[in-house]
Protein 1
Amino acid sequence: MKKIFSILFVFALGFVTCNAQRQLQGQKGLELGAGIVSGEKALHDFFYTRLGITLNRAKGNYNFGAFEYMRKQHTFEGISIPVQSYMAEVGHSLYLLGDWRRTISLNMGLSAVGGYEVINNSENVLPSGAIIKNEDSFIYGGGLNVSLETYLGDKLVVLLRGHTKYLLGTSLERFRPGGGIGVRYIF
């Protein structure tokens, strides 16, 4: 009889799927993302790319740090003026909503941002002879982001991300909203 129960038990295990626990405290993740920032031009004129790392905390919350490259293309009398921002961001994201298996979650985060902004490749004079009064500068400020995250597997997360940054030290726009998509690998 014990032999029959053992065989049935092993047979039944074949029909049960196992999932690893997700969002455990201490897990780390490597994140890659890209998206668009506010603007009325084409995608290649207003975009950002991002490389970050996350560290899970209790209850689905996590700390994050990221490096971000943002490019915006402005025009003046038909002349393109590129604005490039190189930023580092550190912050904390709070778990807001999700299902009990943690396959999908909605998070909101606050961050501190700092970096450097380059206007027209540091050239102040345009080909038409016009002078750009804006100068390259160090920028700093804060950010707010909302992300919808879903697990494709136990170690792979896809996220939709909306964010806005408020930057000081810049002579251009201070609010910089954007949205994008990213992938996070949990290790």
Protein 2
Amino acid sequence: MSQQELNVESRQTSGKVAARQLRRAGKLPAVLYGHGETPVHLSVGAKEFSDLLSHHGSRSLLVLKGASTETAIIKTIARHPVKGIPATIDFQRVSRNERITAKVPILVVNEPLDVKSGDGLLVQSLHEIEISALPAEMPEHITVDISHLVLNGPAVHISEVDIPAGITVLTSGEEAIAAVNPPKKVDLDAPMDEADAAIEAEGQVKAEELAASNAQNATVAEEITAQATHEVDAEHGSSPKRGGEGNHDGRGETHSA
């Protein structure tokens, strides 16, 4: 675990209003706790903290420099639900001589031949491992060699991983990390399952309901048009001509068609 310095300031106020004011000023609210001591409210420069995360990640051993110097790790980072940027930080005090517990990521290396050829698909079922170590010996990740995996062969388990000295694994050794499985093939001619059939049936019902509704609307529109035409004819005193009747000219005389 690398060691980094981070400037902090103590603060006397807490709560949502105080946190909002800090963020407007380009700072982040933070809390330092641990070792049975009273939690201390801190503020951290937002840009400095973001730079720390960008260059060193969240698993560094930190020396918090303020009114006093504290050794700590980042315990949790609460992020803005939309922007995804850090909103609040929890630091945990640590002693260089006391072991700490943490979950670190698993890094798989050396792609298996069956995956390279496209015959197999790598399926990683475990992405973190819980370990215990002194702060200075806490690794950024645990490396797992998967070059020996073969298609439909056994998975690699935690018990098979080469763990660096000074680290105690707390996750069960029986946990599977990764295996190589056959690629999933999609059979376009396969019968639909019940869920797909239900979705298609529902879509068909909705289509029929829509067609019936459109037909009903068209009928109503025709009736309204016919009624309007009848009312206009009645208003002007005209009536439909019957077959065989002549056309009248302006003099009232009848001419045969």
Protein 3
Amino acid sequence: MSLVQQLAGLPVDRVVQLGGVPIDTVAATTTGETAGPVAVVLRPGPTRTPGAFVRAVLDDLERVAVALLPGWLTEAADVPRADPFGLAAVRAAAVRRARGSAHFAPFLAYLAGVALSGRRPPTDPFPSEIRCPGLTRVVADGFGRPRVSLLVEVPAGLDPAGERAVVAGAEWLCHHGRVAVWLAGTPLRHEDRVVSVALTPAAVAPPPPAPATSPTVLGRPHPGSSTEAALEAALAAESWAAGRVWNHYHQSHPLTPPVCLDLLWPTERCVVEVDGPEHCRPDRFEADRQRDVRLQMDGYAVLRFTNARINHDVGAVVHQIGTVIRARRRDMAEGTFHARR
């Protein structure tokens, strides 16, 4: 039985624990199939209570939803900037989108504003009971799927209280979001009420070959990208932007394949990725998320900007990059900057 068939046979109304296949392989398998649910990898970290676990998962899921815009609100692609007029336009489009659907209009309008502006309030204006179903619907729409499965990585080293928080929180998400919750990563040792499913590694298909791309030039913008050229021209006028390197290869470990980073400040360990429209495809989006997580584990800050955003308002993009670079340098000067070497 193929891995696709094994995943299709999993229950969609309860929490299950998966074993036998790496979590990223499970996610990649679901993104390659267009008919069933897509599994979104979430890494909430250790928590002590079910409520804290739920909030951590929903915060991670909200970041996914924000990154998927305009996949779930196509009108947002026509809004060039996050000024008051742009925010009003995207919120109005969200309200129209919610009519006649299962979406809750106030929440969808709020989320559209957050996604466009890149800013969210310090406290959630909606309770978890609204966020949970709202976010699962948005993410499913963004991937063009009928539903989504939450593929949650269980942190290592949890004590009995930590495992109880994970299981109870996962059951809450399953019930309130009407969504499948798949636990993966470290097996549960203290909780036995979750059904375990052993997937067959032999059924894992080899990854598809990477598509052929134009060669890149180390240390310079891609010769075929006018967007990278425009960003470089804007950065060249900023004194703080010194030390940047274009199209630099990074390898986390000798046994892992190297990845090409669009733009890097090596000293500050800050990565900027310039995403074309192909990055909106579900398989590319999930691969990008997994790569970003690995870079963050290596101590890098990762910023992603679409071609459209750079072309419409390169000044705002440069300002955001500069804010991060200056903050990293300030932390280095104060001795509070910690990065894995």
